[in-house]
Diacylglycerol kinase
Amino acid sequence: MVCCALLAGLLGLLGWPLRRWRLRPSPLAWRPHAAAPAPDPRFSASARLASFRFAWAGLRWLVRNEPNARLHLIAAGLVLAAGAVLHVSLADWRWLILATALVFAAEGLNSAIERLCDHLHPKRHPAIGTVKDVAAGAVLVCATAAALIGAVTLLPYLHTTMPMCGSATR
């Protein structure tokens, strides 16, 4: 028992220099200066309208400047056209719309992260590369999930619409 207490005391003494790093305030707890005016919390229709204009401007920028966003937009259009041609049920429309919106939102976030990283650190850096790779990987996961959702949703409609090989000749 005395050995355990002695060992704990020695480990405590070894950890004493590390204590000052642990007691530093977290950079995540940063707050702006108290002198900065607080934003007006009241509802303003013009502020909401401006917010929507900014959002649409961001979507326009995304489609104009990001080739992958255009590719996802074309794929979404093809999926929605296929859903209309195949007379997909309302429940299946929900899945198709959710999947296409998920991919487009992920692509928008990926593009925003990439632009921010390029702005903050224009030169090549391994950490920035990792951040960009992870963001692109998230888009890949969303696009793969959307492709699977599209296949699972649309294939039964294609199966009932198109005659199978051999069944049309009988």
Residues 48 and 54 are 10 Å apart (CA to CA).
